Amino acid sequence: MTNTSAAFFDVDETVVNIKSMFSFLEFYLEYGNEEPLAKTGTFLELMHYFREIGETYPRTYVNRQYYRLFIDVPLSHFNAVVEKWFEHIYDNGLVFHTPVLTHLRSHQENNDLVVFVSGSCNEILAPIARHLGVTHLLGVTLQVKNEIITGEIVPPQTIGKGKAEAIKMFIRQHDLSAEDCYAYGDHESDIPMLECVANAFAVGSHPQLLRWQRDNNKSHIVLEN
To answer: Which of 55, 101, 105, 186 could lock 14 by a disulfide, CB 3.0 to 4.6 Å apart?
Structure first.
């Protein structure tokens, strides 16, 4: 059967109740740091650093600084820690947001292309996607040379307008129509991706996102407490 529609899902705090990048960082510091990070410090110290620069710089800058932590880490080591991380968070009760999963499963049953779109890198998204049977990832692409992470990323950077850019490219590549596609996001930074398809769903309770949802007469998904 030919796919005629795609459904694009933000992941962190939309599909799952965590911020996957920072959950992975905490795990890496405790269990995976045989390959040391470029910037040393405890998890709390690094989170303070990210919050501090986030007060001055945009999310795109913070995102780039995050991946620069992993300069010179072998990709094989990074991937191995990712697998251990997912097993750890799943065994410890990773929460999938049921109302969102209901929509995701419905799209899969309708033979729609289901796509994760996230500022997390594809390696971190991969085990979550595999668990849910999602095969298309529009996450950050790590730049890798000689199987070593350089700390840089390959455009487009999938945050804010970058998510919309990646989605539009995906729609063109798969010969789809934006009028037939869907998008789900939980934060005001997801508005560009929501605006590039006809069927947009605001997830959760972010005030600016809900204001946009009401002003544009879009759908709203209430998350369970």
So the answer is: 186
